[in-house]
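WARN retry 2 of 3 for item q-0093 after timeout on previous attempt; input resubmitted unchanged.
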Amino acid sequence: MVRQGGQLLLYPNLFVLLVARSGLRKGPPVHLARALVTAVDNTKVIEGRSSIEAIIEEIREVESKSNGGPPDVDSTAFLVASEFASFIISDPQALTQLTDIYDGHYHTQWTYRTRGHGKEILRNPCITLLGASNETHLKEALPENAIGGGFLARTAIIYADKKSHTDSGVRGSRE
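OK item q-0093 returned
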């Protein structure tokens, strides 16, 4: 939380990983969430395989809204990965950097400097991550510093070991 001109600003960063073995339907909720956020059109949706540098650059860019609304100058993004292990190109510091950005409520600007790109400034960073994986891929994707360094402590892990057989009440659902 940050106070700005008497207002209390909240940065509801949320990292969530759905973990289950193959075939337990992790993909549909990830794809549904991506479709909903895309349809609302108020947050950048970042998916596919990217380096942490490319993710930071895309979060920083100010884009006009397709619905004609004012451009968003804040650094907000929805990171979505149907297979988390393939989302971020292997870099031992990538998840550490996401952890630091997650703590955006401690700083209204997050700065990243490189020789090649100069200074990238994320203003009021607010990042949501939704990913899915199985245990094997997740173990490969999480370096030791992500486990003990705070990334996992900031991540809600939702684990399933069997399919649910309850009726969801949604017409056309297959259980």
